Amino acid sequence: MPRLDGLLGDEYDWAILVRGGPKPMRKLAGIIGLALGLVLLAAACGGDGEEVPPAATATAAPTEGPSFSAVVTGKIAFTSDRDGNHEVYVMNADGSGQTRLTDNPAADTLPAWSPDGSRIAFYSDRDGNYEVYVMNADGFGQTRLTDNPAADALPAWSPDGSRIAFTSDRDGNPEVYVMNANGSGQTNLTSDPATDAFPAWSPAR
């Protein structure tokens, strides 16, 4: 099995190469590299790497970072580089119906289901830097929610689906932000000189 530090190191270097810029921005690039490194670790530790044609069904199980829907739909969203770069896919709970939802030369990664299962948030560098996007569960309606020169990544839905927490270095270092599900009202929640990242909401009660 590949060494964890090797995988994360490679991804960290790749993230810095893509992002560049001052040290605080490189810190978030390292966080993003860590997230992508975990995706690669999942790929290295599971399955035989059998490829599945895009937008087609198959019986092979996914090998990368699944994200489970919060509703009983039997769908799993995941990231795969089977077509040459990171894209978001979805499949049934038994591994059938594997379908590519995103398709562009950039990296689209780490999907997060909305609580009602109707939408998927993810982050992508398709517009030159990492931004948070949302799309319908079938891949249509892909919409950018954040838009600034900093890196915005790692989206997490609130239990009622009305807001999305995410990580951004727009204020000089990685911080946890929150916004409305339509991208409005983006607010820094942490405001600390240390690195704050990977937000996670508590379950609804």
Describe this protein's structure.
With 205 residues, this protein is an alpha+beta fold. It has a domain at 53-188: Neuraminidase, CATH 2.120.10.30. The chain is built from 2 helices and 12 strands; from the N terminus they run H-H-E-E-E-E-E-E-E-E-E-E-E-E. Strands 1-2-3-4 form a 4-stranded antiparallel β-sheet, with no helix packed on it. Strands 5-6-7-8 form a 4-stranded antiparallel β-sheet. A 4-stranded antiparallel β-sheet has the order 9-10-11-12, with no helix packed on it. A hairpin with a 5-residue loop joins strand 5 (108-113) and strand 6 (119-124). It is globular and about 45 Å long.
- Give me the CATH architecture of the domain at 53-188, please: 6 Propeller
The largest sheet, given as strand count, sense and whether it forms a barrel, is:
4 strands, antiparallel
Q: Which structural class best describes the helix and strand composition?
A: alpha+beta
Ends distance: 41 Å
Write the layout of secondary structure elements.
Layout (H helix, E strand, L loop, with lengths): L3 H16 L3 H23 L21 E2 L6 E6 L6 E6 L6 E2 L7 E6 L5 E6 L6 E6 L6 E2 L7 E6 L5 E6 L6 E6 L6 E2 L17
Antiparallel strand pairs: 1-2, 2-3, 3-4, 5-6, 6-7, 7-8, 9-10, 10-11, 11-12
